[in-house]
């Protein structure tokens, strides 16, 4: 049995050992009740420190995969993964409401959202939309509007309660304990918390100005791994990346799709900014429709309180999500779906979104130019956020807080160490008449 374990371990770090053993458990190669080798036995076979194996065993025990029983030994369980603890998400949501000028939130400017009042009135005149619990989960009018706007023809499509709900439910279908997933670096913190909660092994892929670097994806796909340890999914943000502001180019989408073709990796795209992104909709599903799940959120464009996101693509994934949801909420409010359907077909809303795109673009450009003039490097290519280099993260946060300004720390966004300190600033919330003043304070904080 020790030979089986040793033969599957290609990464001899604590995380690599935990991932390899968990995959053996999930595949049935190490059934429940199997007595595992002692820490010292496995360390000797691998030629590593017993401390490293102990760390791996502790990780597996916390996840409910194995059970240490003192002198009797350590045994395999058939337990669930560890409970969720959104520690990264907590770090970037710690200050909202506590500072006079809070630019840590990643939320849109309320003044740039469509006016819901007339739309709500029109929907209300239509009466109760749900006469039965057995109605289809998506209103036909909304599904039609979404399919027209989808960047590729989705095999299946549904609506859930926002982008994070979509990511959680798609992950529940695709990812198990020990699964390898590929992610952008930097990455949205709640997604990293989610992978930790399900016990996935994260492989970080660096970005450049066009999106995920093809050389990094090629290396991750070609890395020697034991059978069953190949990546199961690639998670990416196709435009207005949070926090880096990168929008993937068509050229980069083609290059990534060519590398992924036939590899059995499901692409999960989080288009969280939607219609207030400067870049046009883009998806690897154009080239890999059979392997792409696209998530389109309407929170930043049409209103956070709509709590709606659409999920479309791979039929088995979307239908699996819908089936599991029947045992929970069943569907997202059809009243809110009707509001969104109206908004998607409303000329005044389109004018509001066009103005929001223009205002956000102006704020990004003015702020990055003001910071550059003060010797600070910052990225804000698209969307509502700015990713700023700082000499010291904690010093910068304290300096800004002392001036009444909130920003989000960069560390929670790191899927792997980036080698430099950063802050995320929601530049879309900074009023036009305050940009120069805030830039001066950000620069002072960045220089430490």
Automatic annotation (TrEMBL):
Question: What CDD domains does the record point to?
Answer: AAT_like, WHTH_GntR
Alphabetical list of Pfam families matching this protein: Aminotran_1_2, GntR
Entry's Gene Ontology molecular function annotations: DNA binding; DNA-binding transcription factor activity; pyridoxal phosphate binding
Q: Which terms are listed as keywords in the entry?
A: DNA-binding, Pyridoxal phosphate, Transcription, Transcription regulation
Q: Which Gene3D superfamilies match?
A: Aspartate Aminotransferase, domain 1, Type I PLP-dependent aspartate aminotransferase-like (Major domain), Winged helix-like DNA-binding domain superfamily/Winged helix DNA-binding domain
Domain HTH gntR-type per the UniProt entry, residue ranges: 11-79
Give the family this protein belongs to, as stated in its UniProt record.
In the C-terminal section; belongs to the class-I pyridoxal-phosphate-dependent aminotransferase family.
Q: Check the record and name the PANTHER family matching this protein.
A: HTH-TYPE TRANSCRIPTIONAL REGULATORY PROTEIN GABR
What protein does this entry describe?
A: GntR family transcriptional regulator
Q: Which organism is it from?
A: Pseudofrankia asymbiotica
